[in-house]
Amino acid sequence: MSIVLDLGGLGPADLAVGPSALSELMASLHVLAEPEHHPEAVGWTARAAAAGPELRDELSVFAPLWARFRCRLFFPRTVPLTANLDEELAALGELQKGDFLELVAPGVHGTSAQPVPQARELRPGTAAAEDYTRRCLRRSYARGELARQLVAAPLELRDRLLEVLRAADTAFFAEDWRTLRPALEDHAREVRRRLTARPPAEVLAELLPTAARVGPGERIRLDKLQIDEVKVAPRPLVLVPSARVWPHLTVKNEHPSCVVVQYAARGAAPAGQLTLRDLHHRLMALTSPARMELCRHLLGEPITTSELAARLGSSEPQVSRALRTLRDAGLVRSTRDGKLVRHRLATDVIQRLGHDVLATVAR
Q1: Which of 115, 276, 359, 363 is the most exposed place for a label (fewest CB within 10 A)?
Q2: How far, CA to CA in Å, does 259 sit from each of 79, 101, 209, 234, 235?
């Protein structure tokens, strides 16, 4: 599964790169709401939760907006970008009812599998609004209640959300952002420099660890558990680096203003991230009882193919084929020792598999 971005027709003026305080706040609130997705951030999560315990109930009310689908409200809609949270929140506070409904209703629903009624149809008492609220309720009680409030009084909900976001900024985010922002801005400057000299698909394929170019034209495939093909032009493409979004990679395509990709900036994600295909190969390599038995022997000291064959009562060609499967999956390392080749289990890779599974599924 993947999302393909067609970047054909984009010129330098159509590419914007920069951090967004509001998008980073949203990513941070997601970590707080779903810490099981982010075991690497357990220390930060504990500190942030302790800094704003009085926010817990209100953050829980709005948590559907920063769940996996990610509400479009929290992403840039204009360029040039600003990394100033006060300015971004002020812009949210100026949204009229129709614009707020358009941005928030899909986020409350939390899936693109079914269309959301247009803003003008989301009025109390209409069949479209009642159906929308029922669909949200079927997904969860929290979504259903938030949908009910959105339909009944969208601008009141907007103002309440702004209060919660400002309180979160005061409690923990402002200090965090002062630390994170310089590195994200340095990263964005470097990406902008590369985009002036090279095709955007080439730069993005290097920038996003699980992305790959696909032909023909300026197209890249993003490893996501979704299927979509997005023609970006004539809209601009906005790249938003983040320190908190990993392991997720977010693509927001639904708004006519621009296409947004929020991704983990350099240093914010571990090296060697797996594609879905690589993860599948590793898991499949371990499903064979014969290969699993081989792994047990490889767990100790490095061992040759002939010695493995003798231990297992197998032929050397059989053992070689099993070793090749494990080595191709990255689970075995082979080193030459004079005329001999010795093999050993990559225990560090095995230990990471649980985390790799979670990160790949969450992406």
Answers
A1: 115
A2: 12, 19, 19, 10, 7
